[in-house]
User: Fold these one by one.
Assistant:
Number 1:
Amino acid sequence: MPAPTLPLPVGAIAFAFAPRKDWPTEPVAVAFRLRGLLGKHLKQMHCLLDAATSPCEGCRFQPSCVYGSGFESPRNLAIPGFGRVGGAPRLWSLHVDRLGQQWKATLWLIGRELERARAWHEAIASLPLAPGWMPPEEVSPETLRWRSATPVRLRIAGRNPSADELAQALAATIARKARMIAALHGVAAPMSRLEVEALVPHGWLDVERFSFRHGRVERLGGWMLDVRWPDDVGDWQPWLTLMRMVGVGRQVAFGLGRFICLDAAGAQRSA
């Protein structure tokens, strides 16, 4: 099947790496560590002040800073049609997988984040993890059966949804994020209602993360899900592919909210 036509340009940087010996071995926990290390290097390379002590929030250089406006999520940002929002959606996601004895990461960049691809590439090259470049992944055709690869954190009416509310929360979260990203790029997103045909929850999964900023272990958990979209999702088809790449729900920058596609035979396919 041909690669899908997406509403925004997409790029991928893929690389193999060797985690440090003191890192955990669970892929989501490794993604936490890799994300933190990548952010540290990106800030050291591009912060115009003191990278170790200067906060991004309130910094006058943040709008033009690769780290402050790309890796971090700008706060109190005005988005057309939404007004001021607490945080803008990130336009990148980091997928980490273990392939036998090898570890692989894929950094997906969408829309205007592609303009920072060189900065991301240089930050990855500087990592003390012996990164080795791999062929970039291609965008595969979307199927209408999804399975969560990492926990999915959703909200409804300001709280965690119950199992009965997951389908509504998932559809609403994806639709809102798609429309916000579209507004940031001046393109149109579907205004039709997005609905889930069937959703099967497979329980709640907690993953531990050590926060070096706060000096404590934090738990980031979410639902593990199987999702079936309607056979005719109309204009939402390419947006579902895009949303799957950038992640669904909260804490996607930490590797949560990642879905894979299942083909007709039930086989797993990555993005």
Note: Residues 156 and 165 are 8 Å apart (CA to CA).
Number 2:
Amino acid sequence: MPKSPFIALETINGIVRNIEGQLSTDGWLGGIVVISGEKITDALNKCAREGYELFDTDVVGEKKIYRLKLKTK
């Protein structure tokens, strides 16, 4: 499963509740990185290890949406 060039993490009270885009890796859990239900800091650290960087954050009520993009080499 290929990585999406962009992903979005939706949080409520600092816990990841929804993920848009495909975040995958070559070895972890059969190729899929599981971050739903994790604290946002842990989720962002996992995304950074997979080559993503944060470029935008939106606040909508009690939800925060973190947008990340795959770093270009």
Note: Confidence is low (pLDDT under 50) at residues 27-31.
